[in-house]
Specification:
This protein is an all-alpha fold and 80 residues long. The protein has one domain. Helix content is 75%, strand content 0%. The protein is built from three helices and no strands. The N and C termini lie far apart (69 Å).
Amino acid sequence: MGATLDPELVAAVDAHVAQHAGLDRSAVIDEALRLWQEREQGAAMQRQIREDAKHYDDPERVAWRRIRDAAAARTFTRRR
């Protein structure tokens, strides 16, 4: 993969690499891309949760929650 980077970013990466033995440009860029991907996945999950929340009060979901709650009450109610 090839990419054109802002010269200031390249200088920052080079300065970081110079201060940390065992690192190279590729390792820094790999970590930056991992962090970007993690952020993107988090944003996608937040969008999905917001979208799901729009349907929380749908009548069918409400009915299923009532059925679930009744079943849980039967299951976990102590018998004497």
